[in-house]
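Throughout this chapter, every protein is written as a compact record of paired, labelled lines. The reader may check this reading against the record printed directly beneath this paragraph:
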Amino acid sequence: MPGKPNILLITADQWRGDCLSAVGHPCVTTPNVDALASEGTLFARHYAGAAPCSPARATLYTGLYQMNHRVCRNGSPLDARFDNLALAARRAGYEPTLFGYTDTAPDPRGLDPNDPHLATYEGLLPGFTARQLLPEHEKQWLSWLRARGHENATSRDIHTPVGAEPGKISNAPTAYSKDETQTAFLTGEFIRWLGEQDSPWFAHVSFLRPHPPFSAPAPFNDMVAPADGPRFARAESREAEAQSHPYVSYAMPSNDKRSFIHGATGPVSDWSADDISAIRAIYYGMIAEVDAQLGRIWQALKEAGAWEDTVIVFTSDHAEMAGDHWTFGKGGFFDGSYHIPLIIRDPQSSSHGTTAQQFTSAADIFPTLCDRLNIEPGNGLDGRSLLPFTQGIKPANWRDAVFWEFDFRDIANQRAERHFGLRSNACNLAVIRDENFKFVHFNGLPPLLFNLKNDPMELQNIAEEPAHASTRLAYAEKLLSLRARHLDQTLAYTELTEKGPVRYRP
């Protein structure tokens, strides 16, 4: 690969890390993701740094943990002082181009109070050129559908399956076809742009799917039966699950059906076990729909002669509970919300078709791209480059545990604060997880400890059991040490001396 490579970063919103046929899922079919993995490196234990979308993407784009980037929830501004992968790519001579969205709320301190950018969290990450935006209202896609003859594509009601009662769970197909999905729309726009390129490029294709609402076109709508799939990770009943921890009992009733089935009303707790199975089956089909569009991208790159010149990073921002622990969506502390896929395919790498079993983080994506493009990040980073893994090398002193955070403050309405009697800055949790145990520290609520060897579904909290007091202490200290190591190091590695600034490069 002479000269600079092309860079293609693809995110598929809310895709679980176990939902790949390449890792042995019993009913999800992902032949195109699998094909990418066969030519690259699959990271089997890759985790988001936070949830929901804006905090998760802030970690992905900046290489910082939430404790440093401080994007606490959707709508939290990203501090303008932080470097990110788009700004860094510009320094390397690229014009980073976006297809989709980045969910970045801008720093309000540099804007006039009347600036309309301050009325939404679906802003653009600084450094990107937007070729085709597609925020959650999907208006750009809807107008494209109307141009294709779907005159009724005037709102997101288009997601209601044909013949289904609005708000009801149905695996009937949507009115739009498999070639007319949001994923197909963005794929087509990327392929059209690809044909215009005559120099090395950097593109970020940010797909909305398999994010809800849960509905899909034929043949993906019913390709998986509700009875198929692995056993749900959940307690015997919704009531037993709610009793497991004060946060769980608070969060479960707050999930609204309309977040998952278009037009639905009421709490998710109204859905039966059969309803949950039916929704999960649709979710699996939505994953297959995205995979099919990835196949179009792979083919377009090959036909354009760009396949052997393009570094591809495929991942997600966060995952989806998909019925585990009787809930949907993302947040909290369970693995189902944070375990996400990651595949890196670099034609220059010597190790193809390999799987890395070490713990990796979304914070590692930015430093990996910096390493690949020989770019110096503008501030300290929490992640580390994954390039050695793509060469079949395990870096020295690699992490033996993964870390993530979730902030459940409610600045606008103070709902969580009133419920728990906590200040906003106490409405948060931090997780450290290794092969054996998972420890969850709450700022103001009881901790959790799970023995993952004996309890992989995270059903038995042993934090209060005297026999495990020493384990709880050890993991609390491990978490404390991790947080201390990852305090902002931007200037901490610099010392002014008589000979001028001395910088240590760890």
Summary: The chain has a mean pLDDT of 96.
